[in-house]
Amino acid sequence: GNRLHGERPDYVAQLTQVIQTTLDRGGNVVIPSFAVGRTQELLYLIRHIKENNLVKNHDGFPVWVDSPMAAETTKIYSDDMTDYYDEKTLELLKSGVNPIIFDDLNLSVSSDESKMINFDETPKIILSASGMCEAGRIRHHLKHNLWRPECTIVFVGYQAVGTTGRIIVDGAEEIKLFGEPIQIKAEIVQLKGSSGHADKDGLLCWIN
């Protein structure tokens, strides 16, 4: 309540640059993302990037959503929710475009599917929960990608003090995962302003 988010940044441009640079290096883009809402927002942006061929020379790059809850939530968004969509989204639906589903999107539910993601050497995007890296499958993906300088870890939400995500964002050179020290060599990127919470003006608007 004591701050303003400011103008919404151009997330498409920021994300496109991160994906392009990382795939050019042969690395993975790993995004710790909250399963409900934030993951689907990112899928919306990635679909736009793919649809408009904004990332060059990497046609058909795979995108994995590795979270049972996020996978289920994504399916809910794909059901009939027209009463909740804005005009832009309704226009997409009328033209036959699903706003958050696209070719090369993979939803991982089982633990075996999750493990296979890191055995596949194809450069890819991995969205996994939890958003602050405190639990869940994201910790496995960090273990496999944090030490690789060709990879990028993209933080798209607030990181509370003391959480694994905050420690990484604050510039730690090493972190312990599953009792094992992991060197942090990957590029660390934080998309500023990508909070799911209302700011001062948003709260005042709501309370009024």
List keywords for this structure.
single chain, about 210 residues, alpha/beta, six-stranded parallel sheet, two-stranded antiparallel ribbon, 8 helices, globular
Can I get a quick summary?
This protein is an alpha/beta fold and 208 residues long.
Compile the SSE list and pairings:
Blueprint: H1 11-25, E1 29-32, H2 38-51, E2 63-66, H3 68-78, H4 87-94, E3 105-108, H5 111-119, E4 125-128, H6 138-145, E5 152-155, H7 164-169, E6 174-177, E7 180-183, E8 187-190, H8 200-207
Parallel strand pairs: 1-4, 1-5, 2-3, 2-4, 5-8
Antiparallel strand pairs: 6-7
Helix pairs in contact: 1-2
Could you walk me through the main structural features you see in this protein, from its secondary elements to its overall organization?
The protein has 208 residues and is α/β, with parallel strands linked by helices. It is built from 8 helices and 8 strands; from the N terminus they run H-E-H-E-H-H-E-H-E-H-E-H-E-E-E-H. The strands form 2 sheets. The protein has a 6-stranded parallel beta sheet, sandwiched between helices. Helix 1 (11-25) crosses helix 2 (38-51).
